[in-house]
Amino acid sequence: MGKGLSKYYKLPALGGLEALGATRHRTSFPHHYHDTFNVSLIYEGVFSAKLDDRLITAPTGGIFVTNPLEVHANPCDKKGSVSFFTFYLSQDFVRYCNGGRPVVFNSKVIYDTDLFASLHQLSLLVDAGLAGSCEEVFRRGFSDLVVRHGSQRPADDGARAGRLFAEFLAEENLARFSLQEAADRFGMDKYKFLRLFKDQTGLTPNNYFILKRIERSKSLLAHCDDLLSVAIDLGFYDSAHFSNHFKKFTGVSPGVYIQSV
After folding, report:
1. I need a surface site. Which of 137, 185, 215, 237 has the fewest CB within 10 A?
2. Beta partners for 215?
3. Which one is predicted more confidently, 224 or 200?
């Protein structure tokens, strides 16, 4: 079995389109979420996701979709591999494709051969660096996805945390989180706080803050290619520690990501 290859794309067009192309991918993604809609085209193998304690699989030719803030993990069978292309679409762009109305995808696995072929052509435009000059083509393609398989969503749907907890998350130092201090702030023992945290975010504190640090690192890497400096700024032990977590959550190394910026 050949070595897996991954390529990350980061484009200013289409509301800040990002994408990941992976061939013979054999690495699991831990529980995480995105601020974007994720639309994955499955080219080879079976794409798996754990979502709300369910294991969902999308076979070759399927389209797998997750909504913003949906916590999921992507287990990967070490004996096999999967090849896929994922579009990370901003909420504003998807709403634009839906005539300004919010949308949600209730069906996670979509079987639509015509749509798959259309989105595959868009992936080729991304790979060729032509997305910026074909915005109307992208709008039509993803409008088809929304019209055929999306559902209307109330504008205030999907708020995951109460105001107090949301303020706590916004204020918390990503690199120096203390479970005991956080529990004391909410007047409860650390075990009750862990349950509260998981209920509000869908993640453990460890995974949540690592994920937020990785997201912050993307902004830093756009202006600095010194991995050790970025790692230390965000509270990682060293560049290797940072790189391991970066690849675990994004599917590519920091070096590959820097090439896409």
Report:
1. 237
2. none
3. 224
The CATH number given to whatever domain includes residue 200 is 1.10.10.60
Question: Pairing relation of β-strands 63-66 and 82-89?
Answer: unpaired
Strands (E), 77-154: 82-89, 103-104, 109-110, 151-152
What is the CATH classification number for the domain harbouring 82? 2.60.120.10
The dihedral region occupied by 12, where left means phi > 0, alpha psi between -120 and 50, and beta the remainder, is: alpha
Phi, psi values for residue 194, rounded to 5° = -60, -40
Q: Are 49 and 31 in contact (CB under 8 A)?
A: no
Rounded to 5 degrees, φ, ψ at 19 are -155, 160
Q: Do 118 and 16 belong to one domain?
A: yes
CB 69 within 8 A of CB 35: yes
Give the span between the Cα atoms of 258 and 261, in whole angstroms: 5
The model's pLDDT over 167-185, given as tens digits with 9 standing for 90+, comes to 777 776 666 778 888 877 7
Question: With the C-alpha atoms ordered 31, 37, 38, 40, is the resulting torsion angle positive or negative?
Answer: positive
Is 105 exposed, middle or buried, given 0-12, 13-18 or 19+ CB atoms closer than 10 A?
Answer: buried
Q: What pTM, to 2 d.p., does this model score?
A: 0.81
| Region of 235 on the Ramachandran plot (φ > 0 left; ψ -120 to 50 alpha; else beta) | left
